[in-house]
Specification:
transport; four-stranded antiparallel beta sheet; ABC_transporter_ATP-binding; six-stranded mixed beta sheet; about 30% helix; Alpha-Beta Plaits
Length: about 300
């Protein structure tokens, strides 16, 4: 049995008409991690997830979930994964409690082992247990989708854009629950367009672009790949025109006495940048820096692969 929660090798998908959604994608999702799967719209993320869910047939390659090959052991593979799709998919005329009970029944979960109220409580939906699902807000429907994916207690949970349209407070509640699941041993795969969210939550991140895997690294390693760094320098007098120096990649005047300087951190350091400002005849009053983040790396990688 593979030690990976998800093991993908050479996965490809070509749709009718010749559109190649996935092109030889290979990576593993380690057990027990929160794993980010990122990429621009149309990159192939949803196709990959739908292949794992058994909703789309792959063209080539192989994939396994929790050690079960999706072709050789499809029932076990499907039982090992819970998927929260982007689309809201449940009957609006059932209550949340009924929705979870029906879903548990479809998975063959015995009545005594069903966790309907526990899941609703965890999703802050306990007070809506008997309301028609169509009356729920967008955020509540998203949380009901998460609960629905967890009724059979799968060891792997895939969240495909789960916080789209969810306000900040509800997003934080959702991620608190995701962290608690991960603490209990559930492996979580997350796709999101909120890159700061991925940077904060994920242990490791893979990036797909045009159906190809272009990065698969620990989150901190990815963030450290950003070569640009920004330092804002407040000087002791007004700056009539921005000074020039070889160590400035870019320099802007953001206020009469504030310079925003971008530099390559693998070529020069902050001390050299500040020395160059002083050499231009200015005294330094204040300094602030902005570390490179995942958004910088994401944009650089996807542009390079375009």
């Amino acid at each position: 049995m593979s030690e990976a929660a998800i093991d993908i090798e050479g996965l490809s998908k070509i749709y009718a008409g010749g559109k190649q959604a996935l092109d030889g994608v290979t990576f593993q999702v380690p057990r027990g991690q929160i794993f980010g799967l990122l990429g621009p719209n149309g990159a192939g993320k949803s196709t990959l997830i739908n292949i794992l869910a058994g909703l789309v047939n792959k063209t080539g390659g192989r994939a396994s979930v929790w050690g079960f090959d999706i072709d050789a052991h499809p029932r076990n593979a499907k039982a090992s994964i819970g998927i929260v799709n982007q689309e809201i998919t449940f009957d609006p005329f059932f209550t949340p409690a009924e929705t979870l009970e029906i879903q548990a029944g479809l998975w063959g979960v015995p009545r005594k082992k069903r966790r309907t109220m526990d899941l609703l409580r965890a999703m802050h939906l306990e007070d809506k247990a008997d309301a028609y699902s169509r009356t729920l807000s967008g955020g509540m429907k998203r949380r009901l989708m998460v609960a629905k994916a967890m009724v059979h207690n799968p060891p792997v949970l895939v969240l495909d854009e789960p916080t789209a349209g969810v306000d900040i407070e509800l997003r934080q509640q959702l991620w608190a629950y995701v962290r608690s699941l991960n603490d209990q041993g559930v492996t979580v795969v997350l796709t999101t367009h909120y890159l700061e969210e991925a940077e904060e939550l994920c242990d490791r991140i893979a990036i797909i672009n045009h159906g190809k895997l272009i990065a698969n690294e620990p989150t901190r390693t990815l963030v450290n790949m950003a070569k640009e760094k920004l330092v804002e320098v407040t000087v002791d007098r007004d700056v009539p025109s921005t000074p020039e120096n070889r160590c400035f990649q870019k320099i802007e005047l953001t206020a009469p006495r504030t310079l925003a300087i971008t530099y390559h951190k693998d070529q020069v350091n902050a001390g050299e940048v500040l020395a160059a400002v002083q050499d231009a005849g200015y005294g330094i009053v204040d300094v602030s820096t902005r570390e490179a983040d995942l958004e910088d790396v994401f944009l650089n990688l996807t542009r390079a692969a375009a």
